[in-house]
Amino acid sequence: MVGKKVKLRIIFLSTFLILLILSLFLILKSLEDEIVYFITPTEIKDLTELDKKKIRVGGMVKEGSIKANSENINFIITDFKNEITVSFTGAIPNLFAEGKGVVAEGVLRDRNYLISKKILAKHDENYIPPEVKEALENK
After folding, report:
1. CB-based contacts of 66-70 (< 8 A; 24+ apart in sequence)
2. How many domains does the chain have?
3. Model confidence over 54-111: pLDDT tens digits?
4. 92 located within any domain
């Protein structure tokens, strides 16, 4: 026989767990449309079916592949196994250059072409601000 206090605790804990699970489900469901997956050109080639959702493709900007005109810029992202051509219209980040890391966010037109809405240039993980570098060299 379970006492009245124990029954109240069981009811309280089970209600709390149900509400917690329900709230987590609702939060994750609402974020579902905002989640952007990061993949490489090789993973794009291996896809069984193309999805028209927004994706992020990451890799290195291929040397000699940047072609810019007044309206847009075209370049190739490579992971040194496969490549994908990217078309971008907009302001280019200062760190964007050939041979540097880049992440392009957009929609795939096909397995070889991405129409990008955003470019995120990656800096070297060993980056040191110029002031700090100068201070270290003067010591």
Report:
1. 66/98
2. 2
3. 888 988 999 999 998 888 999 999 988 899 999 999 888 888 888 888 899 999 888 8
4. yes
